Amino acid sequence: MSDDTGDDMSNGMGDMRARDDWMPLPLAPEVRQRLNGVPLVVMLDVDGTLAPIVSRPDEAEVPRGTQHAVAALAVRPHVHVALVSGRSAGDARRMVAVSEVWVIGNHGSETVSPDGEETVDPRVAPFEGAMARALRELSRLLAHVPGVLVENKRWTLSVHYRLADERVVPQVEAAVQRVAHDLGLRVHDGKMVYEVRPPARVDKGTAVLALAQRLGGLADGAALLFAGDDRTDEDAFRALRLRAPHAVTIRVTDDVTTPTAAEYRLANPAAVRTLLEELAATSA
What superfamily in CATH does domain 125-197 come from? Predict the structure, then answer.
C-alpha cells in the first residue's frame, strides 16, 4: 500500500442513519456476511467517493492506490464493479482508468458495459435537442460570470459555482431555472452545482436497480454495495433499501449530522479505498 492511504479503518469509518440509531462499521461481522454473497455487485460514485472533491471538476483525480483497489476487485471471480456518476460515462471511465468496470453516467441516463457497449435510457434520448439548446443558452448567459463553469455532458449539463462569489449564486440559479423551465427540463441541486436534466423518471436509483438486476445483484444469495457522497446518491440509497434490503449502502461524508437514507458512513475517499482493498482481498 502506498503512502497516500489516508485515514485507517478505525478513523475513517463511522456509522450513521437518517434516524438517531447507530450501526456497526461496514466490515463488522454481520456486514461482512452480507457482502459474502455470489455474485457481489459493487457500485461506486466517483467524485467525492473515489476522488476527492476539488474546485474545478476537470482537475479531479482518482488516486492511483484507489485505481488499483478498484481494478483488483473488478477482476475477482463473481464480482462486478460499476461506476455510478453524474459525469458522462466516458469521463467517469477516464478518471478511474479501469477497463473491467460497468459505468452508469449522467445520473442514470447512459450505461456502458466493460466491452464498451453503450445504452441510452429511451426516456432520456428524446431530449437531446433540448439539452443542446440549454447548453448554448446557459453558456451565453453565464459566460461573463466569474467562477461559473458550464459543463456539457450531452444528456445532462452541470453549472458549477464552487469558484464563484456567493453573491452571484442567486443570479446563476435564476438563469438556470429560467432556461430549464422554458425548455421543459428539470433542475437538481448538488454540491455547489446545478444539474439540468430531462424531465424523465431517470436517476441513480432507477439506474442502479436496473443494472443490479442485469448483473444478478438482486437475486437470492447475491451481495450488493453502493457508496456515494452527494444528494443525487440518495436516490440510489432509497431505491436499494426499498427494493434490495440486503444491499449495503454507504454515504461518504465526515459530517455525522448529514441526513441520509444510507445505513453507514465513511468519512472520506481514503476510507473508501481501504474498504475496497479489504473487499478485494476477501472476495471469493
Answer: Trehalose-6-phosphate phosphatase related protein; domain 2 (3.30.70.1020)
In which element (H, E) is residue 235 found? helix 233-243
Of 3, 4, 45, 47, which is the active-site residue? 45
Whether the upstream peptide bond of residue 39 has omega within 30° of 0, thus cis, is yes
pTM: 0.84
Angle made by CA atoms 216, 222, 227, in degrees to the nearest 5: 90
CA gap 62, 43 in Å, rounded: 16
Rounded CA-CA distance 187/173 in Å is 9
8 is catalytic: no
Core vs surface per residue 57-68: b (16+ CB within 10 A) or e = beebebbebbbb
For range 233-250, the mean pLDDT = 96
Asked if the 9-122+202-282 domain carries CATH number 3.90.1150.10, the reply is no
Question: What is the residue-averaged pLDDT of the chain?
Answer: 89
In 3D space, the residue among 25, 29, 30, 19 whose CA is nearest the CA of residue 7 turns out to be 25
